[in-house]
Amino acid sequence: MADDCIFCKIANGQIPVPLVYQDERVAAFRDINPQAPTHILLVPRAHVTGVPALTDADGPLLAALLTTAAALARQEGIAESGYRLVINAGPDAGQTVDHLHVHLLGGRALGWPPG
Ligand code: 5GP
Ligand code: ZN
Questions:
Q1: pLDDT tens sequence across 72-100
Q2: Model pLDDT for residues 8-64, shown as the tens digit of each residue
Q3: CB 3.0 to 4.6 Å from 79: which of 70, 72, 74, 96, for a disulfide?
Q4: In the chain, where the domains are located
């Protein structure tokens, strides 16, 4: 856990945000500024700054993030209509929080290419 990391604090209960899912590795909660009817953030409970910091040892963590996203999409009722998983990395992609997070977006048609 990193000091002054908002997602570390949310994922480990120091900031009381309702979690839509949690296990020993992964926590998920709704985005404070939703961009679609379903907009959930999935994060590792442990601090990882982002995609550039990942190593082969993070394979099981990444699998857990993606399979949890698929399960939450089913729970949200958007598995059939479709959804998008986004991980922003770095300034051009608009990453604003330096703790790895997967956006689960759905519930409306999502434009392509992204903005
Ligand atoms: P990024 O732009 O880094 O890919 O995504 C960061 C996301 O975190 C944004 O969509 C933003 O709305 C969300 N966010 C930032 N601070 C908070 C917070 O304190 N609570 C919640 N639930 N979401 C947050
Ligand atoms: Zn963190």
A1: 999 999 999 999 999 999 999 999 999 99
A2: 999 999 999 999 999 999 999 999 999 999 999 999 999 999 999 999 999 999 999
A3: 74
A4: 6-106
Fold of 6-106: HIT family, subunit A (3.30.428)
Q: Which helix (H) or strand (E) element contains residue 40?
A: strand 38-44
In degrees, to the nearest 5, what angle opens at C-alpha 19 toward C-alphas 78 and 1? 125
- 22 bridge partner residues: 27
Q: Is the dihedral of CA 68, 27, 51, 90 positive or negative?
A: positive
Q: Give the integer Cα–Cα distance in Å for 105 and 36.
A: 6
As a whole number of angstroms, the distance between CA 108 and CA 112 comes to 13
Q: Which residue type is seen at 33? A: N
State which of 6, 42, 65, 96 you would mutate to test the pocket of ligand 1, scoring each by most atoms of that ligand within 8 A of its C-beta: 96
